[in-house]
Design goal:
The chain is an alpha+beta fold. The chain folds into three domains: about 90 residues, no CATH class; about 90 residues, Pdz3 Domain (Roll), CATH 2.30.42.10; about 200 residues, 2-enoyl-CoA Hydratase, Chain A, domain 1 (Alpha-Beta Complex). It contains eleven helices and 19 strands. The strands form four sheets. Strands 3, 4, 5, 6, 7 and 8 form a six-stranded antiparallel sheet that branches.
Length: about 400
Amino acid sequence: MSYCQKRLFTLLAVCILALTAFAAGFGIGRHVLPYSRSPSSAGDDEIQGQFQIFWQAWDLVEDRFYTTEPLNTQEMVYGAVRGMVESLGDRHTVFLTPDQADLFRDDLEGEFGGIGVTVAMTQEGWLRIVKPIPDSPGERAGLRTGDVILEVDGTWIRGMDLVQAISLIRGREGTEVRLKVRSPDGQEAELVVVRAQIEVPTTESRMLDQGVGYLAVYDCNSLAPRGVRAALDDLLRNDPVGLVLDLRGNPGGYLHVAKDIANEFIDDGLLLIERDSSGHETTHRASRGGRAIDIPLAVLVDSASASAAEIIAGAIQDNARGMLVGTTTFGKGSVQVTERLSDGSALQLTIRRWYTPADRLIEGQGLIPNLQVDITEEDILAGRDPQLERAIAYLLAGPA
């Protein structure tokens, strides 16, 4: 590798290390970083000195590694950046290839090519199906809530991060993906699913028995606020005695979307607190005019409720606006910015921590529901939902 190539790689690393200076705003940002730092600064000289070991190893690989194929230097560079990022020890700070970065963008925009299931990575490293989208390719092929995806096109996926696993499943409309799946009762099967263009339903709403309204929010993407407002307008016309807000399986999304949704239920009060590594604090308060600020409220959460969904649930809990029902949430109490690099790859970088209105840090801990109710695999297989049943019972019981 020439000196110019090495210098470009060093500058890439310098720019990534300095990303916090470019991060602005909340949630997800999309920018292309300029490679324009002067190489004359003392900091750059020190980093170049530290890179001598890297270049020694690189040159040894180039000169002496046994291979019958040309080295894939692009993958070597990506691997080096991944190693640098992983050394930070933050599970939410990750490097994304161009394809993975596009996948992440599509998630937040609410439309992509795939099989139409919501998934979550368990603490044990399994990719578990939270819920198939109705009439999606995945549901038609036989995928069900609680199934675990073991292999994708012959590749074992346990231990991958969520983005890596999802990127194997996603693909162009009309192409096939072969999945090895284990059901909750331990049976394994291979399924072939034909990918389609998936438009993610961000909300689902209906009136339940005994006059209780139900609103599920599956994602905090850019489409969610509009869906929530429309659903609330429709439900409130029925004069419900109470409302169930279902955030189970909601993996989060944009911070500003979480605020918009929380505003519909909280008329006045603190929504969250942000702090950066220097201790600088930013507070976010509810704005008046929400549609559902007075109706009795129960919020369903589980271990897959994360990030922006936890902001909504934490704000409702700490403002005593409603009761959380279910199981402890995921515990993602940090804010990321996603910066696109010049080749389309990206760095998702943690820039701040967020705290609930009562100044609780939930990172790695989650929110504990007021009413803790488990749902078992037997419940799922039998079509029972004890968490929803408990929320309805709470609302029907009245203020007492």
